[in-house]
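User: Show me an example of a complex going from sequences to structure tokens.

Assistant: Sure. Here are the input components:
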Amino acid sequence: MPNVATDTVFKALADPTRRAIFERLTRDGQLTVHALTARAGVSQPMVSKHLSALKRARLVRHRRDGRETHYSVHPEALAPLMDWMTQYGAFWRDRLARLENLLDRMD
Amino acid sequence: MATGEIRTLVIEKEFAHPPEKVWRALTQGALIKEWLMDNDFQPVVGHKFSFRATPVGTWSGVIESQVLVVEPNQKLSYSWGTLGVDTAVTWTLAATRTGTLLRMEQSGFGPEQDANYKGAKYGWTKFIGNMERVVGDLQ
């Protein structure tokens, strides 16, 4: 099902370096570009470029504090992804099959 | 991308069992655990409870919920909040000649809807937006 929000999120997370940055922010909370660069294995301009892509997908947000910019994960970031997974319906399909099985066993 | 985008998942399944029986499976904690997840559900509007699944990675496996609607043998609704995303799950039961048509509707809420959603008023009319419907091929 075509959906702009889902496309943007998937594209943003398709790049392994970008995904690593996103995962790092998910784990560590708020980080500066410097802190992210120290572990990313790519140059600071590249990290900044990836952060811009993540911001466009609304996966991360930033807060300026003096000369430093702090990046963190947007709480609703994965909503389109969750929707997508939900629409695949695997979860509810599985649970409703279990419900049927239970009903057959109930009095 | 609309930030307040709302999407709804609808799955329908027919069971060869009467609505009263399906209702029991939907509202008795021990039975819910058998097909859905461990829980401390009570069929009382306003009751806050949680579903507990096996934690996966950084996900705690906990789904925070509150009972929104209880209409015995007809309709049950509760909020479903996890990973910072709040949705509502609504079950509607309709008697058929051979049993029950069960409809599961899960509505996703964007940040703008959050305030409304957490407010005292629960009204579907508020949730206008880019609604998409998917009916699962469960039969």
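The lines above are the inputs; the final block is the predicted structure for all two components together. The beta strands of chain A are 31-32, 60-65, 68-73.
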